[in-house]
Design a protein that fits this description.
105 residues, mainly beta, three-stranded mixed β-sheet
């Protein structure tokens, strides 16, 4: 049995609540406010500007995906080391943990 040093990048058991993310599915409408700030820059916000400031109000449809997020752990060997990666393609918070048991691979 070969022995390896382990280089930790990010890995282990994924602790993510897929149920909460799946509940975000469907489409919803939202208010959008467009106005100019004090310096003249155009601002888009979900809250109206300060009192007396001119703004344009728009209704926008926000589509959400029912596709579950993909967070995967992969292990690669290079130069006698194990690289353990956690790929987070959903760009959402995800927590990973690694538990080492024994000194050989």
């Amino acid at each position: 049995m070969a022995t390896y040093r382990i280089r930790l990048i990010a890995a282990g058991r994924l602790l993510i609540s897929l149920t909460a993310i799946a509940a975000l599915g469907g489409a919803s409408a939202g208010q959008l406010y467009k106005y100019r700030d004090e310096s003249g820059a155009v601002v888009y916000s979900d809250t109206p500007p300060a009192d007396g400031q001119a703004f344009e109000q728009q209704q926008r449809e926000v589509a959400r995906s029912n596709k579950p997020p993909r967070v995967a752990v992969r292990i690669e060997e290079s130069d006698g080391l194990l690289d353990i990666w956690a790929d987070n393609e959903c760009h959402c918070p995800a927590e990973v943990a690694l538990q080492l048991t024994g000194g050989s691979y």
